[in-house]
Amino acid sequence: MSRFVPRLLVVVSQHTAARSAVLPRRIPAFIRPVCTSQALQSLTRYDEATDWQKKLTPEQYVVTRERGTEEPFSGLYLNHAEVGMYHCVCCDAPLFSSEAKYDSGTGWPAFKEAHGTWERDESHASIIRRPDNSLGSAGTEVLCKNCDAHLGHVFEDGPDPTGQRFCINSVALTFRPRGNSKPDEPEEN
User: Fold this and answer.
1) Which residues does the annotation mark as catalytic?
2) Among 152, 65, 178, 166, CA closest to 122
């Protein structure tokens, strides 16, 4: 038996080499990738080919795509008190409920929690957090989970019960009043 196995391997390898020279090699089904699409390898639904500069205003582009910040106390939604939902300006994902909005006095719209959060679980929310040292100290950047748009930052000095303050740029948001199917477009000056 021990002489038979090496001989069998030689015959099989010669047969495989001859077959592969004539026919294209087939990959067994258990090795094949489930999906070969390049677009589905990203966690976001938008790829680098999306022309954000055409889709967004210059200020929206700088804030959401280049991680900029709008001037404090200048945002459209800073003192906005209407009931509804704040959506991502880039992909229209629901981000924050007006019920979680409060006046933090910092100059940007502030929210206690993201829409879809259950206690401290944000797995169903449309945001993700990423460490950020651009402010001169360790902070946490808030991004849209669907399109990677920079929204703002989150701090641990917010009101109860969450203790969090989501400090979000107005230009990164659109607002949809409760009962309305289309988001309001921010006014341009």
Assistant:
1) 167
2) 166
Distance (Å, rounded) from C-alpha 146 to C-alpha 121?
A: 18
Taking residues 156-175, what's their average pLDDT? 92
| Nearest Cα residue to 93 out of 46, 127, 117 | 127
108, 75 contact by CB (below 8 A):
yes
Say how far apart CA 113 and CA 97 lie, in whole Å: 8
Average pLDDT over residues 34-59: 62
Question: How far, in Å, CA of 24 to CA of 72, rounded?
Answer: 63
Residue 108, token pair as written in the block: 């940007």
* Residues 63-91: tens digit of each pLDDT: 999 999 999 999 999 999 999 999 999 99
Residue type for position 20? S
The token duo for 125 is 């929310």
Distance from the first to the final alpha carbon of the chain: 86
Q: What is the CA 134 to chain-centroid distance, rounded?
A: 19
For residue 155, CA distances in Å to 75, 138, 139, 186 come to 19, 10, 7, 26
> Model's pTM, two decimal places?
0.69
**Residue 33's pLDDT is what?**
42
